[in-house]
Amino acid sequence: TTHARRSSPTLMSHAATSPWPAWAEAQLGDLAERRLLRSLRSLTPLPSDNGLSAALVGTTTYQQMLDNTPSTGEVEAATGGMRLTIFAANDYLGLSAHPAVREAAAAAALAHGSGPRGSALVCGYTHAHRELETALAALEQ
């Protein structure tokens, strides 16, 4: 005989009485009150003219950043906005927008695939990664 799977009454009543929603709401309220609640901001990466990571943001987005007001979630076209230098990025040297780096990355993806997206400790370390690491280390010598 087949048995239909049903949700356990214990699990359903636990979900209804879970303290998680109230706790999460309180934490978000506390962060907002202390002006620590962060928003994702829409930007357009720019090629670097000085070796630093740069982006263009729309005027509304820029004002929201200055005022530390939450993002509305709207995507604003960054034309005519403000050019920003971004020091908090992993790409602080602006190399990701360099044409030679982009071409090399595209060629490497075609040759080797993009590989697993995760930590090398979890997903492994490829020969291509080792070659890049060795070539970069040679620049320091």
UniProtKB/TrEMBL annotation:
Q: For this chain's UniProt record, which GO biological process terms are given?
A: biotin biosynthetic process
Query: Gene3D superfamilies from the xrefs?
Result: Aspartate Aminotransferase, domain 1 (3.90.1150.10)
SUPFAM superfamilies reported in the protein's UniProt record: PLP-dependent transferases
Q: Which GO terms describe its molecular function?
A: transferase activity
Which key words are in the record?
Pyridoxal phosphate, Transferase
Q: Which cofactor does it need?
A: pyridoxal 5'-phosphate
The similarity annotation says: Belongs to the class-II pyridoxal-phosphate-dependent aminotransferase family. BioF subfamily.
Name assigned to this protein: 8-amino-7-oxononanoate synthase
